[in-house]
What does this fold into?
Amino acid sequence: MKNDPLLQPYQLKHLTLRNRIMTTSHEPAYPEDGMPKARYRRYHAERAKAGVALTMTAGSAIVSRDSPPAFNNVLAYRDEVVGWMRELVDECHDHGAAVMIQLTHLGWRTNWNKGDWLPVVSPGRSREPAHGAYPKMIEDWDIARIIRDYGDAAERMQAAGLDGIELCCTGHLQDSFFSPAVNDFTEEYGGSFINRMRLMTETLTEIRDRVGPDFIVGIRFAGDDYVKDGVNHDEGVRICTHFRDSGLIDFLNVTRGSVSTDARMTKMIPISGMASAPHLDAMGEIRKEVAFPIFHAARIPDVATARHAIAAGKLDMVGMTRAHMADPHIVKKIVEGREDDIRPCVGATYCLDRIYEGGAALCFHNAATGREETMPHVVAPAPTRRKIVVVGAGMAGLEAARVCAERGHEVLVFEAADAPGGQLRLAIQNPRKAELGSAIDWRMAQCAARDVEFRFNTLAEAADVLAETPDVVFIATGGLPEEASLTGAGHCVSSWDILTQDAAPGERVLIWDEAGDHAGMLAAEVIANSGAQLEVINRDRRIAPEVMGMNLTPYLAALQPKGVVFTQGLELRSVAKNGNALTCEIGSDYTDQTFTRTVDQVVVNNGAQPLDDLYFELKAQSRNKGAVDYDALADAHPQSEIEGDGFLLYRIGDAVATRNVHAAVFDALRLAKDI
It folds into this structure.
């Protein structure tokens, strides 16, 4: 451990960081009324307690009222933020971690119809694609006001006891001045390199005048934005050198890419199926050329990659941000020699997709992240050892088995298939989704370490369960494809039929995507790859709304070149045999008009019907009759211990209703944590 590059301290000005691992600024969208209250504080404190050297809060905190909070941002322009930030800082400091915050003016990366309905500003009139606002061309008095706002916000953060601040220049106001592709000014703040750097220079000067020379200040920006006429690598190095030489900053947090569209975002923040650490070598080049502290995060999901980044001299501090959402105890496990126990980040990016859809960040397969007030990352031993039977080894069943075993119970799992994973096994057949299988593998390893017994190829019946004389039974049997409620449904196949290869793709195919989830998109990819002519219809306003933006990007990248047609706002009403073909009647909620399509295969993606026969067979014999106290469940309290003989019975995951992996894992955790 003494020789581990990741565990060596790092001296940043007067601040000693205890190791080389940090979480970079990100907005999990946990603020309440714009303030980082208890939920926000517990989230960061959990990572500080487990050993991270530096936790950067906010992504980003807003310095001005005319920067409407697009992601439920912390409002750094309000004085009351000082008290809330001080509570967060004090708790993290008590655990030995340094704390910084990222400040920003979002500029064009928001919309006027949020917050106070003030016009958004930019050095150009171009519409930002992600949020759709047409900005007001920024004026001189706007610039003066915003610079003052940065100074005010920096003073507030210094008063709150933070170790430093970072200014965000990644798709926001500041770097829109950097980029000739966005900056339409020709004088003073535009045109020449020095002019384009002027706003940032004046902002940093204002901040230094307010907080003095000792307070740590850095900037985060894209060293290459991959945008035509934007900031390329050489220009990025020039920007780094310029601000290094200014004497106004203490570190550079550098990334690559743009955030203006979902597709561009995935190049900056890659998801599953994309390369890990794609910008690391470029960061090493910048560090070598600039000779200045370089921080970086972009899909560095595992300890080996992070260790290489430091050992090879590519970075001074390595950001493992999504990795810490999957497992906040990474550093603790490294120190204790338990790297194999680290819950892997599988790149699902459910966290970011939720934020960009207006929700709070949640991890694909860690239901305790963001729920630190109520859900444990490590469960406590149970006072009494019990016999637990779990039926189904999908994600819900595996999580129930893992948590119960960690509590010290004897656990037996029945599974009808020959391998674990349930519906997730359908997804990981796609090479781009194979990484998600690590969520299954990790649970199996955790169960193996705790002697959980698995009986595969066993379709459990009530007698099999009762023969084990269990104290608690979890029914995690998942579901089977739901037929669409339309005339001629028997002529259709399901998306699962395509994914399991029980049905081969036709030549002319229509997908009726009622569920709008990954199964529909995965089936579409299989069909398109077969060379079929494919149309996907749904009644929603968007393509596959359950998939969300960043995850939708690689699907569209795979499907568009193959000529797949997506049609929204329509519904499939009937399918009729027409010789060797199928005639589809298609209607709309918007008009009385109907359409027809003639194809040779109709694929229905309509979610899963719960496979619940066993649950209802066992229900009458259980002590609780399968009932769940929803008030206790929602409040994270234990279920009542009902008197009497027999077992407690709980149904979880898609055996209740079709949902997603996170819901299945959350079901299991919040019931099993108290058993």
